[in-house]
Amino acid sequence: MGRVVAVTGVLVVLALGFVPALGLEPRPFIRNTANGPREFTEGEDILLTCVVADLGNHTVWWSRHQDGKKTILTVGDRSISTDQRVSILHDTAPSYSFNSSLITSGGDVWVLVIKKAKISDTGVYVCEVNSSPSLTSLYMLAANVFYFAVVPANESASQVALRSPHNYTDCCVKNSVSTQCLGFCNIHNILEGKTGIEPEACETYFPFIVKCMADMRNHVPCCEEQRVPDICQDLCRGEYTMQEDSIQSHFSCTAYTEVTLMCISDGVEILPKAPESPSVEVLGSSSVQVKWQHPDMDTPPPEHYIINVTTITKFDPPVDMPTDAPPPGDDDRIDGQDELFLPKRMQVKVAASQTSAVLSNLSPLTWYEVSVVSVNKHGSSLPSYSLRVLTHARDTNKTEVVHPELPDVVGCCSERGVKHFRCLRNLCDPSNRFISEPDMIVCAPWATEAFSCLANQMDHSDCCRERGLPPLCVELCTGNVTQIDYKYFRCVDYFNDYRSCLMKGYNVLPGPPSIITVTNIHPTFVLLHWSPPDVLGDSVTAYHAFYRPIQPSRECERKWFINNMEVSYHGIYTDKSPYVLEKLCEDTEYEVYVQAVNKHGTGDPSERVLFRTPTQEHERKLADNSYNVTACCRNIDVSPGCMPLCDYNARMSHVRVLAATCTNELSKLLRCVVGGRNHQPCCQRRGVPVACMSLCAGSFSSQATPAICMPYIGNIMMCLEEGVVDLPGPVMDLHATKVSDGEVTLVWQPPNKGSNVTQYQLHYQKVDKNSASRAVFALNNTMNVSDTVATVSNLQKDQMYNFFVISLNEMGTSLPSSVLTINASEETSEGIIAGVSSAPHSLVLDAKTATSLTVVWQPPELAHPTDRFTYLVHYRALGGDGSDSYNISRIGAPALRLDNLTPNTQYVLFVTASNDRGESRPSETLLAWTDPAFPAFVETPTIHPINLIVEGGKMTVLCIAMGSPPPTVSLYISGILIHQDVTRHMVTVVHNVTRDMKEISCYADNGYGTPMQASRTITISRRPKIRASEVVGAVEGREVTLECSVDAWPEPSLVWWTDPDGRVPVIHGGQYAIRTENGPQGSGQYLMQLVIKSVREGEDLYYCHARNAFGMYTHTIKVQISKPVKLNVDVSECCRQSNISDVCMDACAFDELNFDSVMNRKECIPDFGSLMKCAADGSDHRSCCSQNKVPRACLDWCRGEPVPHLHLCQLQWAPAIISCFNEGQEYLPGPPLQLTVTSQGPTAALVSWQPPTKNPDTVQLYRVFWRAKGQRSAMKNDTAMTQLSIDGLTEGTTYEVAVKAGNHKGTSILTPTITFELPVTSVTWATTKGGSNATVAVVAVVVIILVSVAVVLAVLWARKRNLLWAKSSSNGRISFENPSYIREQNGDSVQIAETPNGSFNGSVSPSQNSGISNGGISGSGISPIDVNGGVWNTQNLSPRPGFEDDLPSSGGYMRFSS
Fold first, then answer.
1. Closest Cα to residue 1332, out of 1299, 1314, 1308?
2. Is the pLDDT of residue 21 over 70?
3. Mean pLDDT, to the nearest integer, of 711-733?
4. How far apart are alpha carbons 941 and 961 in whole angstroms?
5. Which of 1265, 1259, 1271 is nearest to 1305 (CA)?
6. For residue range 334-361, what is the model confidence (pLDDT) as tens digits?
7. Residue 1424 to residues 275, 1276, 1298, 1429: CA-CA distances in angstroms?
8. What is the pLDDT of residue 1051?
9. Is the pLDDT of residue 828 over 50?
10. I need a labelling partner for 979 at 20 to 30 A (CA). Which of 58, 349, 1021, 1247 fits?
């Protein structure tokens, strides 16, 4: 049944205007300019809501737009429409003041009210504000008209005259229709709009309601008389078409609602109802008996009954009819020739007094479909359902056994020599219903005896054929079997039916069940009834029902597989009637039959009953030779994304999603689905309105709007799908082969294969220059021809003519595929002239700017479906240089934007279509002006929300710009480009807002004038964040200041704590002073300061805490407390020798360094390295510093050397380094004294020294370094003595040597380097006894900085290559194995090795690796230090160049000593 489907259209926002604020007056703003489509049911009240903020002195009005006309309905709060159903709702409360503020009158909501809506109210309604520019909000109304259209009572009385109330509520109740939906079970309720509920809420019950409404009467003849289209006649048959996603289910039958209901109202009073409980019984091979019951006595009586009998010649094997043998009795049939198996139909008229009839002269072993209808002079009923029955193979005169007895088959087999127990039990026992292939193999030698005993000298082949056994297996039923081979293995699957046929021959099986009926038909289940069989009904122990779908859909077909194998029938066992058949498919026809079962086997099947479940679309399949719409779409290059629309059964969900995306390809899609056929007669029959008729001919018109045509899309698609099968296709390759004075010869190719053309019709007409390009589907003159060539004579010389050809058959015509425009003169003949498409049409200006024009047009109307077009847009400026030449732009889509035009200039344009056959005539000509140009202007950004932008949230930024041409608008946030577009209104949603997004800027530029930028500063609401040092050094008893920088908004509460739980706050006063400084207004920057006047042990952890409405943050500061450095040397003398400035000398006391006095003094920063040198006191404290996590960049201070980052090391790590100085004063040794080198031959030398002055008792080992001068690698070895013999030297080579002292806590610094050359008598370097550091030369600052930079680069390089922290395994390196103090604490400390007995050899013996035996570690060689590690400072820039970067073998830090 048909019904109206509401158009879910796409809302189009026509205008969105914003104007700058003038003074303090707020700008109007419509809050919702995008509104979803509104569907309504006829008779309800419609409320359209428009929300306008800051209206001010402006006015709101409602208008309706229909057929290009605008009708104003309301102005302000007054309705000016003549329709009394239209009114306006608005709050008109007066203005009043509150707290010196004026509250404006009225509300923001303006509601348009349309009472008792009609179908004619469909259209577009606009809420508009008369601002400049105007603001609009659009609302699309579409009628959701269910087939039971709500017709107001005052209108229906004159149009529909009902003869009866026809209340079918009882039927609805029996079919389980919901109580709320029973209002639809009365025709008067439907027509008068008194159903009491919306149709959508009851749509699931409509199949049952419609069936009850038709009341098993056939109302189709009346509907046909009233010219109801075939697709709208489903209600006349008691059927309902549920709206699915398929496009063909979206059709409209609104115009035929009333006449259909009138036919039903008349029919239930005069038409007879269907006979009840029909059944069929097989009487023999050529006759059946049909039985039924009279209809209800209170309905119009039938005058007679009609029995419809149809032969079914093709059925599913193996259950029904074998495919490899023709049915018996039909000797004239030839296998494989389907055309000989034609169904035979006959009707038998039976008197109204009878309730049964015998049908004779039927064919043996043939399937028949039987139905019974009631008939009187007014019409007929519908059949209750159809029955299927199989006649017997042939008549046999069998004597019925009154007292059936079974033969002793097992005894027979045993007597005939079958001795194998397996064969006696499985094969010869009739009660055993199953057998396996191994049984057949084992029993093959006794096949003749076994099957002869089973048959009992009877031929059971007729029964076997009826049961569907293959011909090879039917041989077993005769009992005449000579041998068994592998071909009989397939009979194992049929052995149950074989056994049953044997039992039937013994007359021990029950007969077929009788009176098979189906009731309570629902979409997924039915109730199956039957009566016991007439023969041996008392012996039945169970029933076996079989059912299957006929021509199921793909989805339903998937359910009909078991273990991935298709089966003919599904079967169920039950012990009694009735039985519920469940899990059926919707809208599918089923066949069902029942067999009775007793202890001996299964009886014959009953007649077949056919029924159909309601709903679910039934997909139609086109013939194999039909038109291929998919191939057409591919040929004309429809994009893959739009291919789902190239289908006659396209889904409506695809249509809605892809309609906007595929707009430019809709014309190509329409040409393909139309297929070059003229479907307009079919569309007219099916109620398609005139405005949409162009779609049925393959083109769009201005009247074919979505609002009008979408409800009829199903009607149109049905016509298109049927037409491409029935109608002839278009001709191809039309061309003129000869043109002479007054005569033209035309030739063309017939349509593609499959088009049933009976003749062709040639159209021609004289045209002038202006009309030659217009597409016309019928010309003044026609000529019918049967061939593909025609000559037209009697034409006027030198006159222009249009020619085209269409195909014809009895079903209709094709469309013209091309048009020829020819001058009927031999002088103008140019040989063969090919037909081309008609010209593009409906050329219009779609948009324009100062430098561009956008034009759109419709493709040619006369074209072949597979034509691929390239459009040529011809344009030129009028005036100017006076040139008549046109610029040409090519494009494949029917729309083009012409750029780089001149502002304020008039252009002339036209379009032609070109393909492989030539170029079409020009379209109509279009004159269009470009806009004047003016510079870009941009407003201050509008931000929402403006008052509360939260970090991590989102904000919407609106950039409004003006200018001609439209400017390129850019959004910058804090100087970073976020979004850019060519537009006048750019809305950007910024997600995950961060606290640094403070500056919002809109920038506009259109290439004219100066670009413009407008900015706004915003404040991001954010939780606090605190930046502060983690460790702050302080000298015990001295003052220190702790600082925390806080970033938060709104302003947070700030507090200092001394415990992590915040329960012990720091109170201002006494020991503490708390200060807070605020940054610039609105910046959210704050500074917390805590002054501790006297630092004490145990009070080293403080917590700065900030909290606001968005969160909290706590930062921990550790105060690292150190004591003043006390030295054993004259610090004042060291400071003077190090050139400490006078202003910083107060840090140098006699025996201590007071770093606290210079820590925060900027003028003392350059002297800090010299102070550290004095404080190191000749020792290397880097082991302690590394344990205190002093970074690598500051480690050189730990041995008195300069560092590259003075400020970093001074502020953060000086306290930790000073504490190491204090700790190392007691156990770290100073450098050795009086280093001397004495020759021991041409290749050996003795290095000796004196113990250091500082902590000489703590020395455990000495480390000696030597190398040839200028080399980067050095040799080294350790000894516990004050001398070491080295060999492997070269005579005449200059060497450098240095020594340091060390213990398990660390080392001293290196002694100054001395230089010697063999042979040498003695070279000595002596130090003063007063202090090790006072006499050491200082390397120039610039050299130290260069070396530091080199070290940092080396560290980074080594990290990248995993050189750091990796233990070396090179040969020749010295290995130390004492676990207690031989390990290196850091990369610069000495590895001290101690021999087990404390004694060392005193001689040096050369080896491959310059091994040392005198004073060294026995068995180990001396390894050169890695050159790439910067071991030795080869730039001799100081008196003591030093041995640097002795790479440790166990990881650690790069620099070893300097």
1. 1308
2. no
3. 87
4. 10
5. 1259
6. 333 333 344 567 888 899 999 999 988 8
7. 116, 8, 15, 11
8. 92
9. yes
10. 1021
3-state helix, strand, coil in the chain (%, to 5): 20, 30, 45
Quick check: 1382 pLDDT over 50?
Answer: no
Q: Which helix (H) or strand (E) holds 234?
A: none
Instruction: Return the closest-CA partner of residue 698 out of 679, 726, 723, 718.
Output: 679
Q: What is the pLDDT of residues 551-568, one digit of tens each?
A: 777 777 766 665 445 556
Q: Let me know: does 1104 contact 1042? Beta carbons within 8 Å.
A: yes
Tell how strand 109-114 and strand 123-129 pair up.
unpaired
Does the pTM of the predicted model rise above 0.90? no
The bridge status of strand 1306-1308 relative to strand 367-376 is: unpaired
Taking the C-alpha atoms of residue 10 and residue 666, their distance in angstroms, rounded to an integer, is 16
pLDDT at position 119 is 80
Distance, in Å, from the CA atom of 308 to the CA atom of 384, rounded to the nearest integer, reads 12
Report the pLDDT averaged over residues 105-133: 82
What is the Cα–Cα distance from 384 to 519, expressed in whole angstroms?
A: 10
Q: Which amino acid is at 785?
A: V
In whole angstroms, give the CA distance from residue 289 to residue 275.
15
What confidence tier does 459 reach under pLDDT thresholds 50, 70, 90? confident
Average pLDDT over residues 1012-1036: 90
**Among candidate residues 995, 1208, 955, the one with its CA nearest the CA of residue 1113:** 995
How far apart CA 772 and CA 779 sit, in angstroms, is: 12
Q: Do 1456 and 1447 contact (CB within 8 A), yes or no?
A: yes
* Closest by CA position to 290, among listed 355, 374, 385, 380: 355
Which residue has better confidence, 1409 or 1025? 1025
Distance CA 930, CA 905 (A): 5
Q: What is the DSSP letter of 417?
A: T
Residue 1279 CB neighbour total at 10 angstroms: 23
Q: Which of the 8 DSSP states describes residue 941?
A: P
What whole-number distance in Å separates Cα of residue 1351 and Cα of residue 1202? 13
Q: Are 1180 and 1308 in contact (CB under 8 A)?
A: yes
The whole-angstrom separation of Cα 801 and Cα 771 is 10
What is the share, in percent, of the chain residues with pLDDT greater than 70?
Answer: 77
Nearest of 149, 362, 184 to residue 254 by alpha carbon: 149
Q: Cα–Cα distance between 1317 and 803 in angstroms, integer?
A: 117
* Spatial distance between the Cα atoms of 260 and 228, rounded to a whole number of angstroms: 8
